[in-house]
Amino acid sequence: MSINVIVNGAFGKMGEATVAAVRQQEDMRIVATTGRNDDLAAKITHHTADVVVDMTHPDAVFNNCITILQKGAHAVVGTTGLTDANITALDTLAKKEKKSCINCPNFAIGAVLMMQFSKQAATYLSDAEIIEAHRKEKVDSPSGTALRTADLIAEGRSDALVQPSDVIPQEESQKARGYNYKGTPIHSVRLPGVIADQQVIFGELGGTLTLSHKTTSREAFMPGVILCIRQSMHRLGVVVGLEKVMGI
Ligand SMILES: NC(=O)c1ccc[n+]([C@@H]2O[C@H](COP(=O)([O-])OP(=O)(O)OC[C@H]3O[C@@H](n4cnc5c(N)ncnc54)[C@H](OP(=O)(O)O)[C@@H]3O)[C@@H](O)[C@H]2O)c1
């Protein structure tokens, strides 16, 4: 039996790539493509959608997830912008509705490995900074991937013997030291010609370790999206991060 999929935000860059990727799968089919002016709730009911993939806008993603879960579909969420409080509320709702809500700040398997390696490195090298680059029009900074990486670095540090140096000083002479998130400075670059790049630089006495991931095409995200669509049918509640879906 094939999985009925709706892509919300289907006319944007990630949405278009997702529709094309789903159409190549034998075990799933696109039953509707929706955008800003469509009635998502009505489409889910009308097409008996099993899964809705949300690739929209940070301002819309929380309400979209509520609609998806309340209408009886699983949610696979690529849109950034869900807060910790949003995640908690969605977890409660998803469990009540006996559905899943998989939220992945980054669907690229290489990027997920970079994040996991960052967590490992932070256990030994506590001082880290993140430089992330995306296209000029990206509406949020830092990126969801950078925030998630900093979360994982903070988790890695909790086991560290050596704690990082003090947080970023705020003096006038230190204006360009980045955004301090959980003790990791994040520097966001927004330029044409970039899709999604990130470097995580760890400092140690006498050297540095740099982990780097570069996305050259949105196809890089699609194996992760497809995996999440399949897995969403077997999960319950909120799952945050492709690494949890991959089981690493
Ligand atoms: N998880 C990942 O691996 C990953 C990778 C890349 C990007 N992203 C994230 O995915 C999201 C989409 O990125 P993108 O590059 O595809 O952006 P995009 O090209 O701007 O596409 C977003 C689409 O969503 C539509 N939209 C906006 N509000 C909506 C709503 N309330 N309901 C339905 N559709 C709505 C937009 O319509 P209008 O044009 O009319 O506004 C647009 O067609 C962003 O949050 C981005 O950060 C995630």
Shape: elongated
Report the span from N to C terminus.
28 Å
Give the strand line-up of the largest sheet.
Answer: 2-1-3-4-5-11
Described by strand count, sense and barrel closure, the largest sheet is: 6 strands, parallel
Question: What are the main properties of this structure?
Answer:
six-stranded parallel β-sheet, 8 helices, elongated, binds NADP nicotinamide-adenine-dinucleotide phosphate, 248 residues, five-stranded mixed β-sheet, alpha/beta
Topology:
Blueprint: E1 3-8, H1 13-23, E2 28-34, H2 40-46, E3 51-54, H3 61-70, E4 74-77, H4 84-97, E5 100-103, H5 109-122, E6 127-134, H6 144-157, E7 179-181, E8 184-190, E9 196-204, E10 207-215, H7 222-232, E11 237-240, H8 242-246
Parallel strand pairs: 1-2, 1-3, 3-4, 4-5, 5-11, 6-8
Antiparallel strand pairs: 6-9, 7-8, 9-10
NADP nicotinamide-adenine-dinucleotide phosphate binds at residues 8-9, 11-15, 35-36, 55-58, 60, 78-80, 104-107, 221.
Would you write up a description of this structure?
The protein is α/β, with parallel strands linked by helices and 248 residues long. Helices cover 35% and strands 26% of the residues. The strands form 2 sheets. A 6-stranded parallel sheet has the order 2-1-3-4-5-11, sandwiched between helices. Strands 7-8-6-9-10 form a 5-stranded mixed sheet, with helices on one face. Helix 1 links the parallel strand 1 and strand 2. Helix 3 runs parallel beside helix 4. It is elongated. Bound molecules: NADP nicotinamide-adenine-dinucleotide phosphate (NAP).
